[in-house]
Design a protein that fits this description.
Blueprint (H helix, E strand, L loop, with lengths): L9 H8 L3 H8 L7 H13 L14 E8 L4 H14 L6 E8 L4 H9 L7 E5 L4 H12 L4 E4 L10 E3 L3 H15 L4 E7 L5 H15 L5 E8 L4 H14 L5 E4 L4 H8 L9 E5 L3 H8 L5 E4 L2 H15 L14 E3 L10
Parallel strand pairs: 1-2, 1-3, 3-4, 4-5, 6-7, 6-8, 8-9, 9-10
Antiparallel strand pairs: 10-11
Helix pairs in contact: 1-2, 1-3, 2-3, 4-12, 5-6, 7-8, 9-10
Amino acid sequence: MTKLRRKPNFQEIAAVAGVSPSTVDRVLNERGSVSDAKRRQVLAAARQLGVLRILPSPSHGQLHFDVVVMQNDTDHFRRLKQAITNYAQLIGPRVTVHRTSWSERQQKQMLTYLSQPPHPRHGLIIATHDRPAVLQVLRELIAGGVPTVVLTSNMEGLTDHYYVGIDNYAAGRTAGYLLAKMAREAGTVALLTNSTRYLAHRQRIQGFIDAVGESPLTFTTIGPLECADDPAQTRQRMEEILAQHPQLVGVYNTGAGSSGIRDVLLKWPAPERPVWITHESTPEHSELLKQRLLSLVIDQDPETQAMVGLQHLLYLCGEVSAMPTLEPRLALITPENIHLVPF
């Protein structure tokens, strides 16, 4: 005779979840009010113990997800925000996605919004720098049970969150390895960046320096020089470098502001132009690749970042049963495969 498996009781579920049996009763039988964080603990414990019943939703009523993005006019952030808008429309009416954008000058207001949202918050997606004040607020939110996803640039010193983005150190190493292979000779390389306030840029810089340093050829790296993704600043930096190093053999820009580099390189005869590697699939970069001014583009797939970030929150809130398996892909775009890439 087959022995029937005994179903877990409330005391056993409570022990695994770290709550009282009465809390388990209120959650599973939907009696009374229990915080969403404790509801998730109880439901996770019930699933772990194999409770054979249809479990209630981990949240009461409407779910509210916040998407907080640093204000940035570059094509990457434009693509990222548009993708979030597109995918949010597919989730369904039970989830409201609140999208906000903050400039560097509005950090105080952003921190207030993060710590005191004007609505219940069941999940947070954020793409911003990792300044101490931002990290502190995020640590407090995570400790309070808010599921948190970081996009594009991870945050040094932050734990218990989910990072969705490419390996930026690997991206920098890829740029350094290929630049060293493509350069016409050893020599001086210009290293430009948006801002080292972002971990992604710090990782790209370090990866590039490490890979170039491993080349059998000897390269001297000038930089990193911060240009704030601004074409005018980028142009000025390039002109300053060339005034002292007219035989430049390579340029790596971890951020935007490409028109500033373009303006300088157009003054050179084509055979003498340096190898130029930068980031993001954009219409501007497509044209520069076609003109053979730009050698290589590394794209970080913001559309997949947006989709996977939202899927992570849905999973963490118990709305879907499995974690997303898709990951953002690091794509290499050259003048030879432009036609295969949507710009």
